Description:
The structure holds four protein chains of four kinds. By secondary structure, chain C is mainly alpha-helical. Chain C has one domain (70-285): MetI-like fold. Chain C contains eleven helices and two strands; from the N terminus they run ααββααααααααα. Chain C has helices at residues 8-42, 47-50, 68-99, 102-116, 120-138, 145-169, 173-181, 186-215, 218-223, 241-248, 254-282, and strands spanning 54-55, 64-65. Chain C is globular and about 70 Å long. In chain D, strands 1, 2, 3, 4, 5, 6, 7, 8, 9 and 10 form a ten-stranded mixed sheet that branches. The termini of chain D are far apart. Classes of the chains: A alpha/beta, B mainly alpha, C mainly alpha, D alpha/beta. Chains B and C meet through helix 1, helix 3, helix 4, helix 5 and helix 6 of B and helix 1, helix 3, helix 4, helix 5 and helix 8 of C.
Amino acid sequence: MTTSPLITQTIRPWANREPCCKTQLPHITTTNLSVSYNGKLAIDHVNLPINRGCITTIIGPSGCGKSTFLSCLNRMTDLATHCKVSGSIAFNDTDITNPKINLIALRRQIGMNFQRPNPPPLSIQKNLTFPLKQHGIKRKADRVAKAQTILRRVGLWDEVKDRLQTPALRLSGGQQQRLCIARALVLSPEVLLLDEPCSALDPIASGVVEDLITSLRGQYTVVVVTHNLAQARRIADNVAMFWMLGQAGTIIEHSPVAPMFESPQNEITAAYLRGERG
Amino acid sequence: MTNWTNRIATVLMWFTALLVTSVFLWIITDLLRQGITHLSWEFLVTAPSDAGRSGGIGPILISTLLILGVCLLTSVPIGVPTAILLAEFSRKGHWFGRLIRSSLDVLAGVPSIVFGLFGNAFFCFYLGMGFSILSGGLTLSCMVLPLLIRSTEEGLRSVPDDYRQAATALGLSDAATLWRIILPAATPGLIVGLILSISRALAETAALLFTSGYADRMPQSLMDSGRSLSIHIYDLAMNVPGGEAQAYATAMVLIALLLIINVATSWASTRWLHGRISL
Amino acid sequence: MSRLPSDTPLKWGLRIIAAIAGTIVLLIVLFLVIEAIPALQTVGLKRFFTDPSWHPAGGTEAGTFNLIPMLVGTILVTAGAILIAAPLGIASALFCQYYAPLRLGKLYRHLIELLAGIPSVVYGFWGLVVLAPLIRQWQPPGQSLLTAILILALMILPTVMLLSESTLRSVSHSYIQAANALGLSRWAIIQSVVLPTARGGIITAVLLGAGRAVGETMAVLMVAGNVVQMPDNLFAPVRTITANIALELGYAMDHHRSALFVTGLMLMAIIVMLVGFAHWINKGHVYD
Amino acid sequence: MSKKMTYIALLQLTIISISMILSGCDKHENAKASEIPQLQGKLILTGSSTVAPLANEIAKRFEAQHPGVRIDVQTGGSSRGIADSRRGTADIGMASRALKSSESDLTAHTIAMDGVGMILHQDNPIKSLTDKQILDIYTGKITHWSKLGGTDNPITVINKAEGRATLEVFLHYFKIKNENIKPSIIIGENQQAIRTVAGDPNAIGYVSIGTADYEASHGIPIRLLPINGIKATVANVRKGVFPMSRPLNLVTHGKISPLAAAFIAFASSSQINDLVEAQYFVPIAQ
């Protein structure tokens, strides 16, 4: 699995920069991962290596288990009742499906964000500082400083610096989504899981969020679930294709972005990418 | 460190639940154990004698039901139309609706003893009804009105606008829409309101002390004084040495009555409403 | 909602009835004022706060009308009950929503609902025959500020718990999901997301509990001992304004009766303030 | 069989009450329908909780003799009895004390005598108290039974709420003002004092001797103390030697109806002496 620099260049205008994820070392590897709700299989035997520092997008039609797969990666599945996970997920050589794992530490290392921006009705600054407080940063000044760094990092600083104490819910949708990403980043995770981060946003806002995501390349391992094939093509290093096989979803193909979009191996993938199936 | 706080919080939550449960189980088992021994059919139908130490609560049950009857017969005809006006005919923010709502908000907060003062001054003396079932029932009626209006209004509001549009499209008049479509659909709210009102009225003591009076005899008319179950409990507990056993039994009857009304009405409403909603 | 103009008689009928419902509060205030006027005229409002004691049966001149001990009694009993019931009630609501397994949470809720339905006179009766004697063995006379606080706390706990719980239920699930994804512990989520989000509703719940405590009459009358005095400790008997009305109205005449209506007006004022405050916090409607 | 009877009774009562609701509440209807012209209608008595049980018994007997008459007895204290009769809310007021000079517009009809006695719990070792000691207890100078030779427990002083006749009799006898009393518990109704003393071995209170005697003889653990060396008994009240005693009065204002007059005449006659004695009061009619 090698990325051809040439092809990347044609697809991604910013790729004249050194690709950040050339290491190709898996950060997370799922092996035979299956999830069932109430005994009904949702995803079945999913095997996927997720490379360190890369942006991996997960594509596929609705209801084929993309989001379920994502929430396995930081054990959000534990919150659903009657949810059973089998198989293994290796994260830095630890199997995180182990029930004894410290969930709090795990979720601190693997952050997650959702479809709809969901800042609690707190002030903008509070939205970023409360996770820090709960994770043991005692001095308020430290928390505020860290929050400001992150706001700069996600490009929100200039937009909100004058109203840090106003409710986050007064921000626009795109701003809220970037705030939520910032909230996940404030804990300095290694991995960031994004579940359809742009689907609730207008095109301009989603362009800004896309730029933010691509700017994370190299520094974080990012997994993005998306419906938007063009978006996947724009931001991804690697792409994984989910499809319903029988009753449950599974990965039918995964590869770097260029071969996936230009010469898909699987016929279903090809048809899906051409817009003939979906 | 955070883990440690989290663990303490968890322990405290479970401890709170355990504490609250055990205190309340204490009360309930105490009431049950002491009350059940005295309970019998005889107790329910005979008149109290020897200041309530022996005999039963027959006339008191009748007085209670009469007070309740007066209360509902007067509060429903005022409460339901008011709720209809507030939910269906008053534009949001209109001064009239707002005024009535704030007035009802205050009414909902008025302490029951103040209702007692008012009932005593207005119904008993000013209107000359004296200490009577009528005075007591009317006083309670003022008291339950906000509850009744609020839940009926909620019920009306929960009727989807589609129904109204469909009715308008059919060319039904407002009155017909209201009568045929909206009211049947809003009945669950009305019934919840009725249950809440009955429960509150049954439980009330302070407002009745100075309006319906104390007499523990069988009432002959609504102008007679009648003692409600709650006042009987109060009297037995406070003024009758050796009245505890009967007080316990009366408390059991009152609580059982409250429970039965709750359960029966909700059962009946689901049953009956199924028939009405599938119009 | 669009309305047709054709049914104006119906509308006017409804309006008239609604006006009647809206006038009841005014009628209550009117009659409280009418009955209170004799006392306000002959005794004067000032003496309700400056007289040496409360012995209103002596006549307008010889009698004394100091309300302050009863006002303090009401405030102490309410404050004490809130101090106990608010933490327990809120914790109970949190337990139901976030700690208890589904079935247990439901069971617990049903128990609290059952308790909310027990009439105050039954709580008072239980306090009189079970709790007061227990406290008497510890510190006589048993009917005391503490007994009243405990019984009232039991009575308003269901109010606080049920209202808080319904607020908690309306806290968006996505906030909790997000906080979970941030790796926060259960308590951390409650503390930093749930409680700030539900704050308005919880404050309203506590205020309504306070309103109920201020207005509660029978239970307090039965367990507080009813001595008009500034209590110097938790075991001293107190009389609240509500208990005073219940205790004396039946036996009061002329200016004494009128003075009791003055206290009733004061109760109304306290309640209007509480309702107004709850309104202001919640910007919504406050009912039971 | 008795179950069946009560069931039928209940059924009848329900029907009666429902029909009452339906037919409105005109209390005079019955009176018009009846053929016997004399003594019809309804009397309302309100007032002293001491007099009320006796008045109730008298009323029942009177009703039995005059089927068209209904008499409602409401308690509410002597002051209310006086106020209600003055205001006309009640046809007849009940007062367990003599009328004051300010009440000369009213007429009192004494139907019996009663004494007010001090009560203690049965387990209290104290056998007697002097007037001075009682005064000291009530004014807070003595707060422990040990000072009086009793157990080492604080005294629970029970006083009555404003407006009660018993309070007035007590204050009058001991010549103190209510302001100077230092109570532990304030109670309302007459019976509540007995109930409280029965439940608290360290309590002291004052109640009508008649009621206390009745309760004590029915197994309630209370004991009456002698006053000034005179035993608190019904006999001593009858002889007129018991110091804290009072008349039980029916009070009327202005011109009264023939029915009220007939009832008062009946209540003042010797026909009810057995009822007075059954309530442990002292009859005065010869």
